[in-house]
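Q: Give me the 3D complex with pyridoxal-5'-phosphate.
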Amino acid sequence: MKLFDVYSLLDMEPVKASGAYLWDKDGVEYLDFYGGHAVISIGHTHPHYVAKITEQLSKIGFYSNAVINSLQAELAEKLGVLSGYEEYELFLCNSGAEANENALKLASFTTGRERVLSMRGAFHGRTSLAVTVTDNPKIQAPVNKNDKISFVALNDVEALERELSTKEYAAVIIEPIQGVNGIQVATNEFLQAARMACDATGTLLICDEVQAGYGRSGRFFSHQYSGVKADIITMAKGIANGFPVGAVMISPSIPAVKGMLGTTFGGSHLACAAAIAVADVVKAEGLVDNARLMGEKIVEGIKGVGGVRDIRGRGLMIGIDLSVPQADFRKVLREEFHIMTGLSGQYTLRLLPPLMIGDKEVERFVEAFRATAVKFGM
Ligand SMILES: Cc1ncc(COP(=O)(O)O)c(C=O)c1O
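A: Here is the predicted complex, encoded as structure tokens.
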């Protein structure tokens, strides 16, 4: 059997990894400024992570959500403390799309309403409801057609207020930093206005922190820069450093009803052990503050380079608009300087390194970035 050919693959196969570094099968070392698409938060193969998972697997890896699993409560406790959302409640699932799917269903169950307001340029995943609030018709199948979803431009306060005041919405869903749309940051004013408009109309505010969350922005959640509290927050990617975990944090004002949400695999012993290990390391190593600091150093290092048209983002979620094709620039970074990076939107080079990078990695990246810019005559 061959693989279903849906991915455009880079000509590179990592077979080993440690911290912020990868090695391919020929032993060539790469600096990882892509983090497996924002997933690697504490660095590859962190010893505490490996030990916790291995130890858990040797005891019990999985049973079912039909029995007590106190690791879930331990994880909820740790996430509450790390995020400052201690009074919220946690539902565990397996991916970012699934977290959003559950968040949207929950908002609809709770409010009894059918409509959802999303943002232009949004990406919320590929499952049936998550894809309808994603602003990309190319990944929506005919069966996903849904006239209950509307879109407004990110940061257009007037449009958002108009929509919410004229129709009944169950939820507004916002990525506080849009990941696939060129790293567009929701302004504090926009998030604050969304909060007020939601309160005035009985609409629930969902923040999709699947990519920007878990410390990547330099705050635990990127919407926390605005001082706003969301009713529902979704997470995935960085939460378990590559073990598939999705999570929904839910305001205590939203009642849990037995059987309303559920999953077979979500919150397994192994998944919880992985996520607990990540939470331990994020706290012990101060990775949220490190993300903010290292992000500032990267921006400082590339600011003013000719051909850099704009730099957006927060912490270690950085988009750099270039005057030359982003994919060509990225290719040189990878092939000549052995640095992995990502792309976003049409013009943007996307940086999503592990949150544990230090000065050495920042300096190597900045030097390579500047040398690549010279090669392109930028
Ligand atoms: C903001 C955001 N939401 C949701 C998703 C979907 O997550 P997953 O691929 O784990 O389903 C992604 C994935 O890139 C994302 O960036």
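A quick observation: The chain has a mean pLDDT of 97.
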